[in-house]
Amino acid sequence: ENNIPICNIRNFSTQAVAEWAVMMMFSLARQTPRLIKNGFPLDYDKDFMKYLGIQLKGRTAGIIGLGLIGSAIAEACKGIGMDVVYWSKSSTDNNYESVSLEYLMSSADVIFPTVAKNPDTLTLFTDKHISSMKKTAILVDIAHGLFSQDKIANMVAKGELFGYGFEGKPNEFAKFEGNVWAAPAYAWATSGSLNNSEAFLIDNIVSASRGEFPTRIN
Hints:
This protein is an alpha/beta fold and about 220 residues long. Helices cover about 35% and strands about 15% of the residues. Strand 4, helix 6 and strand 5 (about 140) form a beta-alpha-beta unit. It is globular and about 70 Å long.
């Protein structure tokens, strides 16, 4: 009402969130959630088949939404020797193969939805997409609210999906059966993110002192 500019701080934790997503991929590939929930059983010479992991090099990572975070995840996956495919509504990158969403969901070994939550993306994933995922696939969900967490976790429990990672509520990690990573939302929490946030805040203040508001939202 008083025409006071409101500015925000953007993209301060892009790399941290991408690394968190890749960490979840590694953890799920080696069934770390199951090991944690079962107290890291010591009979590894007898139980190793029960906790047998997936080698990621040579597997296919599917990135859904090739924005800043999606691109950072794609770069990391390519760096460890994975094949990278992507689906994006607007972005293109000649370093990776662009495919249809249907093909990505049904063929990728690790699926990373990285699109923003909005009216369009809320209806992006259908039941057909979800049921088309391979039983050996891993879903790493940092998009928030685009999937039914209970439904996907139940697929893991029934052996219809190898692993599922998402940011859950506090004390929820042990709630889900099997190879499900449900840790609180610590993806952003790094010293680098805090340094970026402080630097962007200072930039906003300096810009405002000049009458400039590059990150104005109102």
